[in-house]
User: Fold this.
Amino acid sequence: MSMDPELALHLEIAAVVLMAVIIVAVAVRASGGACDDAAGATGSAAVHDADVEAALGDDTLMSYEQAAARKKEKEKEKAKEEQEEERCAICLSEYGEGEAGELVRVVPACGHFYHASCDVDKWLRKRRTCPLCRGGLGPPPAPLPGLPRPECPRMPPSH
Assistant:
């Protein structure tokens, strides 16, 4: 049994249209659109809400004495980290072991630094974060314009 060529053409067109509809639906859903109503606020807002709830949990509620002791402990840890900064976190050799005037690359946002010869530039270009603390290098790149959701009114052009 062979299929009628006209029917086969209609099935192919229907399959292509169905795939296009699925792709557009996924793109619209992923973009989040221009609405900020509660129904569309999932994703990063949900993560943000979870962070807020964690910050307001029982683990962060303590006496002043406990908070002061915790702060003191963190200051000790920070002093230890500063001592560890005498070594490059990439190659683990101490700064100044080689020649005087050794070049280092300083990450502007956090102040961590690395031997320039360790080629940390490749990491910074690719990941845009400090290899040690994962802090950003600066403001994130502007997001690509998203597709508006169908229920959102169109925005007037800005001049």
Q: What stands out?
A: Confidence is low (pLDDT under 50) at residues 36-45. The longest strand covers residues 104-106. The helical segments are 5-31, 44-55, 64-84, 120-127.
